[in-house]
Amino acid sequence: MAKLSTDELLEAFKEMTLIELSEFVKQFEDTFNVTAAAPVAVAAAGAPAGGGEAAAEEEQDEFDVVLESAGEKKIQVIKEVRSLTSLGLKEAKDLVDGAPKAVLEKVDKAAAEKAKEALEGAGATVTLK
What we know:
Helix 5 (74-84) crosses helix 6. The protein is an alpha+beta fold. It is built from seven helices and three strands; from the N terminus they run ααααβααβαβ. Helix content is 55%, strand content 14%. Mean pLDDT is 79; it is low at 39-44. It has helices spanning 6-14, 18-32, 39-45, 52-58, 74-84, 89-97, 109-121; strands at residues 63-69, 101-107, 125-128.
């Protein structure tokens, strides 16, 4: 197998959907027994135990937008999922059919709220985690 350069790998990653990239990261972690966690998580783990959990809840700056159910307007929800992500029609439909699933992961609060409003406007049930 030919060795790929860093630039070639980045170009390949740019062509992947978020779900494909997520699956790749999971398989990479399993294969090499590593974790692709952000360094911020390590710093948060080292916080003092006194008010650790309460402080972590207040300081949360990354949210996951989780689709709990599509509701009765499934087609509208699929359209919203496609507009919020780079997923194709089949991938978006599979995500909606497989609810509860994360639509967006590790986004800032403003983006998470905007996505939640858009999905709820289409008739979906959504939670932020």
